[in-house]
Design goal:
The protein is α/β, with parallel strands linked by helices. The protein has one domain: Rossmann fold (3-Layer(aba) Sandwich), CATH 3.40.50.1970. The protein contains six helices and five strands, in the order βαβαβαβαβαα. The structure holds 5-O-phosphono-beta-D-ribofuranose. It comes from Lacimicrobium alkaliphilum.
Length: 162
């Protein structure tokens, strides 16, 4: 059963949000990805968010661009942790998305990541770290991921011109 739901406001968000999916896949966490729009499919949003916990999800990652109310609206309908990924918009480069997602009023929480690909990948990582609290296999995968990353940096200390 999928543990993490990745939702996005539009198919056009997938090139960004696929980085969350890739991270989860690398760490061995099952996920389900789909388009749910806060303003184009408001009823689907309500139904998806209100039933997410009963459907077996532990964490929700929601990516959106522009007036990005998707993560906040999802968080309003569920007790599950929600991570918001600001997608880089065409007009304001994602600053609009970031501010829309990060400025949640007190009482309904959305964990906001960085704009774009890095934010999506880190949302996947955060979700995996939550799953890892109760899953030894995922915990080992996260630790191995971090170790490999560290080793890569440590083995590239002697920079030379090509
Ligand atoms: C938001 O509007 C989506 O999250 C997307 O980032 C943005 C633009 O959507 P499209 O016009 O590309 O479908 O709802």
């Amino acid at each position: 059963m999928s543990k993490v739901a990745i939702v996005m406001g539009s198919q056009s968000d997938w090139p960004t949000m696929q980085h969350a999916a890739q991270m989860l896949k690398e760490l061995g966490v099952e996920y389900h990805a789909q388009v749910v729009s806060a303003h184009r499919t408001p009823e689907l949003l309500t139904e998806f968010a209100a039933t997410a916990a009963d459907n077996g999800f532990d964490v929700i990652i929601a990516g959106a661009g522009g007036a990005a109310h998707l993560p906040g609206m999802i968080a309003a309908h569920t007790h599950l942790p929600v991570f918001g990924v600001p997608v880089k918009s065409r007009t304001l480069n994602g600053l609009d998305s970031l501010l829309s997602i990060v400025q949640m009023p007190k009482g309904v929480a959305v964990g906001t990541l960085a704009i774009g690909d890095a934010g999506a990948a880190n949302a996947g990582l955060m979700a995996a770290q939550i799953i890892a609290l109760n899953d030894e296999t995922v915990r080992t995968a996260v630790q191995e991921f971090r170790r490999t990353q560290t080793d890569k940096v440590l083995s590239s200390q002697n920079l030379e011109l090509p």
